Amino acid sequence: MKERPQPRAIALLPLLLFLLIFLGSGTYYSLIGTEFAFYQIKAPVAILPAIVLAILLAREGLNRSLDTFIAGIGNSNIITMVLVFFLAGAFATVTDAIGGVTATVNMGLSFIPPAFVLPGLFLIAAFISTAMGTSMGTIGAVAPVALGFAEATGISVPAAMGAVIGGAMAGDNLSIISDTTIAATRTQGVAMRDKFKLNLLIALPAAALTLILLFILGDTATAPALADYQFMLVLPYLAVLVLALSGLNVFAVLMVGIVLSGFTGMFLGEDYSVASWGNDIYSGFEGMLEIAVLSMFIGGLSAVMKREGGLAWLRQSIQNITAKLGQAGRRNGEAAIAALVSLANLFVANNTVAIIVSGSVARDLAGHYNVDRRRSASLLDIFSCVVQGLIPYGAQILLAGSLAGVSPLILAGQVHYCWLLGAVAIVAIIAGFPRPRGEVVEEAGEIG
Description:
The chain has 448 residues and is mostly helical. It contains 22 helices and no strands. It has two domains: 65 residues, no CATH class; 357 residues, no CATH class. α8 runs antiparallel to α9. The C terminus is likely disordered.
């Protein structure tokens, strides 16, 4: 039987140290007027003292703690993210080198009025993410085009990236093939369709408000002079979008995009060769190195904190607080579930892992406070989506920031959908809307 870690609040201290160094140094350099303030001390370097502190605080020996750290780096979720980073970087670099980004932007501007660029980016990202079941692949595919639209129309680059991240998180949250949906429904033992219905009724108002806000923000865009474009250069992007909407695996989608872009560049450009293509692919890998290393370090650090009882302390604290509330009603139970998964996500920086870590406690809370388990599954997914889309050290913001060259902290303030989704979800908890109908349909295969 697997040994449960003893709860320890001090085990969470290393991540707090990382945030203090990363956010504190960026804020300091911003105040003194330094350009690229949040890049003066690179995040992978800022997290090193936190890793050392985690090892020093560990009750296990050095070797076992390092084994735990390395196992965390090798977690399948972390490796998946890193691979998406590299393939997205390669696709963005190759398509930009052959002129595909410029051609796609010019074609898009010939159809889309500048004021509709931001809402359009949000909707495109939401549709693709819903079909693919992954926000990461969506950001990797759409962010380069969003950057081109922003530069052509004078729209703020962070606003364009925020629209893409928001749409990607919206689709990931709703998609029935998303790993967060699977984790939320399985931990609560409910059917995916029931969770989807409740989720949709909360997500739709947030999405509608986001579209209105993005339209207002995009109304300041200037109409650029229309330029000619070669349709052939747009084909790799169109192929990626079609394949993504078909539900093809994200790795296959990005690989097809890289291959099509390379062949298109060699077919249309006299100077573009196999060597050029290979160099561009590698340049794309290099551009993703910083966030790949940071993601691996965060994965390892999270594993150590979990093994040392940090997450167990978090769960115990929520349970103790709710126990003091007694039979106070549904609102307290739902608020506790939302707080539990939100705090877990802050410390593990992965929404799927946060749901799995919180799942069993959330189910207990749902039973204790008479919360319908379809509601608890919906709240788990929604609040993990909100936090994951806003933390500046989360994979989604790191990927978009790296592709656009924008500070992660600035991007966090531009993901309007996640802020609005959180607000609507809080109102839904207070109002008790939407109310599930019928009996809970049990879903086999509980996890968590």
